[in-house]
Design goal:
394 residues, alpha/beta, Rossmann fold, 7-stranded mixed beta sheet, 3-stranded antiparallel beta sheet, elongated
């Protein structure tokens, strides 16, 4: 649409007033139908993910390609939306040679290659929030209630109205257009056969805003993992999958999340996320070293009055000595548990680990509601482990 130069701006449209208004307004029936169809497709995708959630966890497919805001999910059995042309004269539902109980479609991947079309896997993108909602609905997880006074007020600019002055970047085009159109119709200069909309200074309106304080609940997650010789690649894969779900659920419940990562054998150190999942070491295990680093990290950077703190420790349960296991229980009861929302211990199966640490926790800390333990022997157990950790809604 050409724009003339001069003291007044002109927009020329090659259609009459009524079609122009109907094209611009979001209440257009075609736009509403497209939106309705899109929402229906999203609900189908969510239903398919929810139905196969345990399978996704088992295969590790749910991680897909991890992006900043979106997760790519491979989903079977969903046809890509497309236009279908024809006179609708095909036979209806129930026609054909199939009988009750017959499978719909081909399993695919069986036998040699042929000349028929294959059953393709559609990759759909969902947000982390949508993924966490599916997790919560399927596992029937309660909404987490932030603990104590752990809320911080954050400043946000909120657009609340319209004003007559402002920068051009905030000009409200639709309202400006309507004001100019109404002025020209009332003055009698509007020509329906050649609709030209002139913008004058008095037509322009701008969005206005005000700064508001919004309560923002913050959370800290400290992941701790045993990287001694008994924790192999299989065990780390179990940790990676479970930590992803933990992270997704907590981020859905808090506006601000920080994650810290600690690895340990007989000594502990803080590392970045990449190192946490890929570090391979050897040697013995002293679990208390990780708890001390976590304690020092909290004391230095995260006051319990300002943060909801979650600790998760992953190990095969093989500690160096019974005395160190008792020291771990002392650190938890006296120094860590009073400051945190929850301590979650996930024991993964290993051919080399004794698996006794979880029994020590039950014996010495079984009376504490904030200490929650789970066993993950295979990927099938991750589903139930997540539910165990968050069913209390801490």
């Amino acid at each position: 649409m050409p724009i003339s130069r001069g003291p007044r701006r002109c927009v020329e449209a090659n259609f009459r007033l009524l079609p122009l208004a109907s094209c611009l307004l979001p209440s257009d029936p075609m736009i509403l139908q497209i939106e309705k169809n899109h929402q229906r497709f999203r609900q189908i995708v969510k239903g398919k993910i929810r139905k196969d959630l345990r399978k996704f966890l088992t295969r590790g497919e749910l991680l897909g390609r991890e992006g900043k805001h979106l997760i790519s999910i491979p989903v079977r059995g969903i046809e890509t939306p497309h236009f279908r042309y024809g006179d609708n004269s095909d036979a209806g539902v129930g026609s054909g040679e199939a009988g009750p109980g017959d499978a719909v479609g081909d399993e695919g991947g069986l036998g040699p290659g042929g000349t028929q079309e294959g059953n393709h896997i559609l990759e759909v993108e969902v947000t982390l929030d949508e993924l966490a909602d599916i997790l919560g609905e399927e596992l029937q997880l309660p909404k987490i209630q932030p603990k104590g006074r752990k809320q911080i007020s954050a400043k946000h600019d909120r657009y609340t109205g319209i004003r007559l002055t402002g920068p051009e970047s905030l000009r409200h085009f639709r309202r400006t257009f309507r004001r100019a159109l109404r002025r020209q119709i009332m003055s009698g200069i509007y020509d329906p056969d050649r609709p030209r909309i002139y913008f004058e200074r008095r037509d322009k309106v701008y969005r206005s805003w005000k700064t508001v304080l919004v309560p923002q609940s913050n959370a800290l997650i400290i992941y701790m993992m045993d990287v001694s010789g008994s924790m192999g690649d299989e065990q780390k894969e179990l940790v990676r999958l479970e930590a992803f779900w933990i992270d997704a659920w907590l981020r859905r419940n808090y506006e601000g999340i920080e994650a810290r990562y600690i690895v340990h054998d007989v000594r502990a150190s803080e590392v970045d996320r990449e190192t946490f999942y890929h570090l391979r070491e050897d040697g013995g295990t002293r679990i208390s070293s990780a708890f001390r680093v976590a304690r020092d990290t909290i004391a230095k950077n995260y006051h319990p009055d300002d943060w909801n703190i979650y600790l998760f420790h992953f190990s095969d349960g093989d500690n160096s000595s019974e005395s160190d296991s008792r020291e771990c229980c002392r650190l938890l009861r006296e120094e860590l548990i009073p400051q945190v929302n929850m301590f979650g211990y996930c024991q993964v199966a290993s051919a080399y680990g004794s698996g006794n640490f979880i029994n020590v926790l039950h014996e010495h800390l079984g009376d504490l509601d904030d200490v929650i333990t789970s066993r993950v022997n295979t990927k099938d157990d991750i589903y139930d482990s997540i539910k165990t950790f968050f069913a209390p809604g801490k």
